[in-house]
């Protein structure tokens, strides 16, 4: 069993291993037949070219802005999850169903009207237009609600009796208690924001607004035959995610167990 | 007045949910309403500039779609993707979860990460990497196959083969997430079930058949439904790897909608296509739920 598992794992990771190896090959070696498994003359040139011949520094900056602003979305999702889990109010059920209903709507249905709306609002070709549509997500609100529901209400009542305001309670009491779910969601949010592609592609006309993935697809078109450069670009996108995931993978897996899918 | 007062006194829950709710209404609820309306109009790029040129054309878009050869082809391709892709994803991710559930050592944790990795990899990076692997002349896959004296295979340049190549990439990408869902379910099975079965003399295969698989019913159902919904909307792989070609051989319904909307600016036509897609998803999901209901007596 262990052997099968390992063989399967190696098969699954071949594309990544090939990417890393190819990224360090010089341009003439990458097209060599038979191909070399390890680069014979390893070079960093491809990675340097990403910054000199392409504007990867700009793309990186834009991607990091999206990642940073997405944390606001994380907070919004957490707040909504808390509101639905720990308060009784008029219309709660209906509003929660409304939130869940948005999960069912396919992206292709809303894509065009959202674009038309952003166009009317003058937000095409702006950072806000790229970030706003994907800032909150129903599924994440749902996961937050599931977790927040397990926090004892007595804890919140006690804080209220001590005269704490509702937002004070949320920031000082709930967020620390709900740290595990925030941690999982933060990692998933980082991955999603780092990888965001379609919306930046639709909204951004200027190269100065491109994200890493849009930049990489530009590179794929412009340097169609320079596979070494393409692999370096791919590695530049994939390796940071691998590292982050390596650090936090335990929490992500537990996060799924926590969500109660059984 | 007393109603307003009530809301004001109890305003906090609304303040907590308001930011998310406003964004969801603005970017999901309002858009689907707009999409519904424009699907009955001839809205295009001209209509955006001069609103008076937009007219209500009833079901014309829907009628035209059903006789549009490219749309029919997209439906056919999507059915092909779903029929091959969904069973592959469910069976393979379940198998991997069962394999990984055998041990708890560091090695298993490591390989769990390895299997998960593709699902968090950026789609453009995937297109770049697999595009190179699939390359007819310089690709690794054809090089390895050349040892088995197989001639160079045009992985992405022949319509049917290209569909299969994209399925391989998409399956590779979606194994990880579903495997984790199965693993979470496996870890929720109480150990004493197995102990009791062992006392009764059950072997490994019997334990799997009579304990593990039945108890994984909900997880299997969940994975099947979400995978099915995902594959009906199959979009990213053909979009970044083949742009729907060759000869529309990899064109999916979702990609058709994108192209009509954003490349040809036929917004009304694309919106109508997106509603047909939505209806297909709803029907497929309802069938799944119906099938499940009929076998809940367990």
From TrEMBL, chain B:
<dbReference type="InterPro" id="IPR051393">
    <property type="entry name" value="ABC_transporter_permease"/>
</dbReference>
<dbReference type="Pfam" id="PF00528">
    <property type="entry name" value="BPD_transp_1"/>
</dbReference>
<feature type="transmembrane region" description="Helical">
    <location>
        <begin position="267"/>
        <end position="289"/>
    </location>
</feature>
<protein>
    <submittedName>
        <fullName>Sugar ABC transporter permease</fullName>
    </submittedName>
</protein>
<keyword id="KW-0813">Transport</keyword>
<feature type="transmembrane region" description="Helical">
    <location>
        <begin position="79"/>
        <end position="102"/>
    </location>
</feature>
<keyword id="KW-0812">Transmembrane</keyword>
<comment type="similarity">
    <text>Belongs to the binding-protein-dependent transport system permease family.</text>
</comment>
<keyword id="KW-1003">Cell membrane</keyword>
<dbReference type="InterPro" id="IPR035906">
    <property type="entry name" value="MetI-like_sf"/>
</dbReference>
<feature type="domain" description="ABC transmembrane type-1">
    <location>
        <begin position="75"/>
        <end position="288"/>
    </location>
</feature>
<feature type="transmembrane region" description="Helical">
    <location>
        <begin position="21"/>
        <end position="40"/>
    </location>
</feature>
<feature type="transmembrane region" description="Helical">
    <location>
        <begin position="215"/>
        <end position="234"/>
    </location>
</feature>
<keyword id="KW-0472">Membrane</keyword>
<feature type="transmembrane region" description="Helical">
    <location>
        <begin position="114"/>
        <end position="133"/>
    </location>
</feature>
<keyword id="KW-1133">Transmembrane helix</keyword>
<dbReference type="InterPro" id="IPR000515">
    <property type="entry name" value="MetI-like"/>
</dbReference>
<feature type="transmembrane region" description="Helical">
    <location>
        <begin position="164"/>
        <end position="186"/>
    </location>
</feature>
